[in-house]
Amino acid sequence: MGVYAVTGGATGIGAAVKSRLRTEGHDVIVIDIKTADIQADLSTEEGRGRANSELACIAVDGLDGFVACAGLGPHVMPYSLITRVNYFGAKASVEAARDLVAKKNGSIVIVSSTSAVFDYENGFLELLHGDKEEEACTAADKLDGQTAYGAAKYALTHWMRQHSADYAARGVRMNAIAPGYTNTPLNAMAQASSAYAASIAEYKASIPVGFAGEPEDQASAVCYLLSPEARFICGSVLFVDGGSDAQMRPHKF
């Protein structure tokens, strides 16, 4: 049996991944801001450093897999917080886990979003890609929540694609899933807000398969990508969205 680490493993998709892996007999180290084996705030450099150092101490023999799932929705304010967690925090956690996963020739899965496929303002993306966290966060607070959220997921997914070959050379497969609307506590909070209720209801009604996803649907995809059965999949983005992306972008893939 293997040893895995999951950020954001206390609730939602991360919790479903944790439960599935543990049901399969694996050990799972949960990293989250609360109710976790490693409690850390990934929006801060201090929290990221603590999470990374504690993980290295616990998983001294390495990790079979690492899942970067911690994230905030577009309804969270200030929007700079979304940028800090969804891009800078996620990227830092993956970079720190790389050598631990390499010890076991394991796999990394990043939880992206269907929002990552849209076009975003190049200036903001340049700040993200340039690791200019404070400047990017200042810019994020001038955007709307959906743009801050989607751009962070876009940048993270772009970073994954850009570095997947280098990680593979070190023995680490790295991929991402792009969830569509999924019934998580985070999305329930967004749906309860007046700013997003109507658009979320419209989006859910448009899902081609006729229903919203559950955290277990996303966990199934994550665990497949982590498994040896996916040994030839590297640098890919798997849409787990009930057909929404194909419906919105039928001529792109």
Identify the notable features of this structure and list them briefly.
alpha/beta, Rossmann fold, 10 helices, 253 residues, globular, 7 strands, seven-stranded parallel sheet, 13% strand
What does this structure look like?
With 253 residues, this protein is of the alpha/beta class. The protein has a single domain (3-248), classed as Rossmann fold (3-Layer(aba) Sandwich). The protein has helices at residues 12-23, 45-58, 79-102, 122-129, 133-140, 145-169, 185-191, 197-206, 215-226, 244-248, and strands at residues 3-7, 27-32, 38-39, 65-68, 107-111, 173-179, 237-240. A seven-stranded parallel β-sheet has the order 3-2-1-4-5-6-7, sandwiched between helices. Helix 1 (12-23) crosses helix 9, helix 2 (45-58) runs parallel beside helix 3 (79-102) and helix 3 (79-102) runs parallel beside helix 6 (145-169). The protein is globular, with a radius of gyration of 17 Å. The termini are far apart.
How is the secondary structure organized here?
Layout: E1 3-7, H1 12-23, E2 27-32, E3 38-39, H2 45-58, E4 65-68, H3 79-102, E5 107-111, H4 122-129, H5 133-140, H6 145-169, E6 173-179, H7 185-191, H8 197-206, H9 215-226, E7 237-240, H10 244-248
Parallel strand pairs: 1-2, 1-4, 2-3, 4-5, 5-6, 6-7
